Amino acid sequence: MCGIVGIIGQKPVVNRLLQGLKRLEYRGYDSAGIAVLGDTSLERRRSPGKIVELEKVIKADPIEGTSGIAHTRWATHGRPSFCNAHPHSSHRVSVVHNGIIENHSELRADLEKKGYIFQSETDTEVIAHLIDSHLTESTLLEAVQASLQQLKGAYALAVLSTEEKTKMVGARLGSPLVVGYGQGEMYLGSDAIALSHLSQKISFLEEGDLVEITRDSATVFNKDFHKVERPVISSEISSEVVDKEGYPHFMLKEIFEQPDVIRRSLQHYLTDSDQLDLNLPFNWADVPKVTLVACGTAYYAGFLAKHWFERFAHVPIEVDIASEFRYRQPPLPAGGLAIFLSQSGETADTLAALRYAKEQKQICLGILNVETSSIAREVDHILPIKAGAEIGVASTKAFMGMVVVLALLLLEASRSKEKIGDTELKQHLLSLRQLPSQLESLLKIRGHLKTLAHQVAQADDVLYLGRGTSYALSLEGALKLKEISYIHAEGYAAGEMKHGPIALIDNTVPIIAIVPKDELYDKAISNVEEAMARDGQVILLSDEKGHHDFSPGIGTNGSSLSDSSSNIERVTLPESTFLTSPLLYTVPIQLLAYEAAVARGEDVDQPRNLAKSVTVE
Ligand code: F6R
């Protein structure tokens, strides 16, 4: 999603601003721009498309200065275009903005009456004109503060003005903003990654903060405009740009990193003597209800865990999509446990859901990848997922990391509620310890999946079927495929297929059936038969036993079809338990989506319209 970099300094800034923008590319964007303070004026260069396009514009028409702001825009109000790209400027002011201003239409009408002429369709341009309208009688800081009083919505801002050339003003509400400390210069960034090439010394602004930076100081004011101190910490983000390390895409690299994600997680949460060590701030016996809230892939990780927690730990758990949960205002019993799953820790809806849960006196637990994120700073306790920076927009290793942490949480709950004994716990931990090497072997099926992906890549519609945790995986598989290959895909509970989607099935529809040999196998395999009987082209993911026990076509007359004469392809996975099967079956569904998108020639790491960090609701 949108990204901000700002430098107030003494040395040329253009290249360094562009380097910051490149670090933000992974978040997803569709235009980019830059404004620098020259001797007398603010000069802007902007371009739709990628940062290389902006570089071309700057090369053709160079600018330079020692202070500047830069932005990658992910379109919300107004399509991606030259005019809508940030920075937006008024006479004496230039602004970059992440977030959405909800009352922009009213403000725009007022400003137009005052004679301001708008050049874009964006909500952000009102901020530039509003600040300019306050500047005549105020300092830049006061003008920004007065303008913020009139804004409704979410923002992270960086503002420059020709009136005060040695200052930059920033503000945050609902979107993160970070201050960076340099030698004789200071920075603003939408996250620590944006500033990682400039400084490791950073401080995170809190909700409602306003900051004025000069070359050697940062003065922070809270929402009541009182001066406050925000701690300066040392960022652990390396100044090196994260590299693909020989892989053609970040997504593939991240899929292959998953064995290490599991290893790191187990090392973090298990003692040397294989004891669980989650350090939870509550007793399971005191928890009246568990609510789990997330978006997208993170939601599917939670949905998968619902099945585990109810069936194996007998813990009642409700799982919800953050954008629905936050507005439904569900009653939550005081002392309940609310779990928030998020890779970025910045997802606007998940953050809002967390704030609601806090108001309802829930114990708030974050299962998160970015430990310095906004959600991380607001929850009561964090269980980090140890996936490392995830750059591919389609989440893979973070999903795996979330599911591993949820598996450990499940074991902790089951043990504490005496649903499993020490021996059973040990067996489960052993099966988890064996997972990384199992996954390493499993990743070798990439070649086979690549062949199958060519068939999937031709399709207009794909159906994913599964029961239990495999139903959650079928939803995740369908999401992965549609977001990077743009093929329409749906995940369905296998038993629900006959209540509607079976009407879609013909010989052009690949059906990815996730059917480990578990207690739901017989039921799920009957649903596969039903699909095949309607000419559905099945790709069956199962283990050896599961494949062995399935002979398609044995039915009413007892005859059987061989695979070669039937419409089935088989992918064989290792035998698994209820705990390890979702972790194993995740790999082929990720690889299938990846290879299908590659076969169609799509931009796998930066799919159209998507953003890595969804900081607007
Ligand atoms: C899909 C994907 C998204 C995210 C969702 C939540 O591959 O990446 O669906 O899972 O936007 O993001 P986080 O986990 O950062 O809260």
From the coordinates shown, what is the CATH architecture of the largest domain?
4-Layer Sandwich
| Span of the ends, CA to CA | 12 Å
Low-confidence stretches: 554-561
Mean pLDDT: 92
Number of helices: 18
Inertia-based shape = globular
Looking at CATH, the homologous superfamily of the largest domain is: Aminohydrolase, N-terminal nucleophile (Ntn) domain
CATH class of the largest domain: Alpha Beta
The biggest sheet amounts to: 8 strands, antiparallel
* Whole-number count of domains: 3
Counting DSSP E segments of at least 2 residues, the number of strands comes to 25
Bound molecules: fructose -6-phosphate
Q: Rg from C-alpha positions? A: 26 Å
Secondary structural class: alpha/beta
Q: Give the strand content.
A: 15-25%
**Sequence of strands across the biggest β-sheet:** 3-2-4-1-10-9-11-15
Short overview:
This protein is an alpha/beta fold.
Task: Explain what this protein looks like in three dimensions.
The chain is of the alpha/beta class. It has 3 domains: 3-234, Aminohydrolase, N-terminal nucleophile (Ntn) domain (Glutamine Phosphoribosylpyrophosphate, subunit 1, domain 1, 4-Layer Sandwich), CATH 3.60.20; 250-420, Glucose-6-phosphate isomerase like protein, domain 1 (Rossmann fold); 444-599, Rossmann fold (3-Layer(aba) Sandwich). It is 36% helix and 21% strand. An 8-stranded antiparallel β-sheet has the order 3-2-4-1-10-9-11-15, with helices on one face. Strands 5-6-7-8-12-13-14 form a 7-stranded antiparallel β-sheet, with helices on one face. Strands 17-16-18-19-20 form a 5-stranded parallel β-sheet, sandwiched between helices. It starts with a strand and ends in an 18-residue tail after the last helix. Bound molecules: fructose -6-phosphate. Fructose -6-phosphate (F6R) is lined by residues 295-298, 342-344, 347, 350, 394-395, 479, 483, 614.
